[in-house]
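Ticket closed. Logging final result for NADH-ubiquinone oxidoreductase chain 4L.
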Amino acid sequence: MIISISGIRGILLNRRNIPIMSMPIESMLLAVNSNFLVFSVSSDDMMGQSFASLVSTVAAAESAIGLAIFVMTFRVRGTIAVESINSIQG
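Final structure:
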């Protein structure tokens, strides 16, 4: 629960740099994995461990795609600051 709350707080407080905004999301996924594993062990069921490995796979894919987007944005714009990305809308 503490990891989830710190992840939400991290997203709300760090709105300057996109990679720093994505780190709390990974922290929240870690909290979900921890919950799946703890409840799986306590209930003697393997489904929680299966879901934890699935969430880890999705988190790895999300990180790879996000990093590719960051690199392409940096190459085109020269910065990955959130303020400059908001100017794309207009």
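The helical segments are 2-13, 18-43, 47-77, 82-86. No further action required.
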